[in-house]
Amino acid sequence: MLALWAGVAPGAAASACRQALALGLDVSGSVDAREYRLQIHGVADALSDPRVRQALLSMPETPVRLLVYEWSGSEDQAIILPWTAIDTAPALDAAIATLRATRRREASPGTALGVAMTRGAALLATQDDCWRRTLDLSGDGKSNFGPRPRDVKDALVAAGDVTINALAIGVDNPATGDIRQAEIAELSSYFRAEVILGPGAFVHTALGFEDYARALAEKLLRELDGIVLSRLDAAPQ
Prior knowledge:
Structural class: alpha/beta
Oligomer: single chain
Number of domains: 1
Strand content: 15-25%
Distance between the termini: 45 Å
Number of strands: 6
CATH topology: Rossmann fold
CATH class: Alpha Beta
Number of helices: 8
Order of helices and strands: HEHHEEHHEHEHEH
Helix content: 40-55%
Largest sheet: 6 strands, mixed
CATH architecture: 3-Layer(aba) Sandwich
């Protein structure tokens, strides 16, 4: 039971890793069926990007551990890919296949971003042998249920070495023009003030769910490259 709560795959190897990366996907009421498919397949597409694959598989002796979960209301967080060591191409391909096979479950329409942050941090706390632990939260709106993200963020400051980055998703309709840009700018500012945490934490943007795969691939490259560079900088000269 403890392994399931922690999101650990049965039989997963307990070897040191360079980064524990938890991806939290917004499946609240503002995300319709089409957008859900674009998001979940967008994660799979981003992981399939040749540049991302190369970054993930570059250090198999100290692999990245990947977990993906969905979040919406205060009681709705579900793991769809448990902690998985991405140490070989087949392991990465299996993770991608799991994501592509995922079907939407019923969940409350609320947007409990603070709870999503707490849940992600708890999952990352089980991976304390990793060089770095990163929570990567995607969302298309502000929190409207549960604890305020700012309060959760303040509490997590004392919880240890966890970085929270965010991917702000705009509306898909390009006809909205300047309105869409303004909404993305406002949401990005919200995530920057209320959500992201840790040295080097950042907000990336997707113009809509159609743009999600591209934006997530760029975000993953920045996160994965950063941990390799920081480790090299820390190595004895």
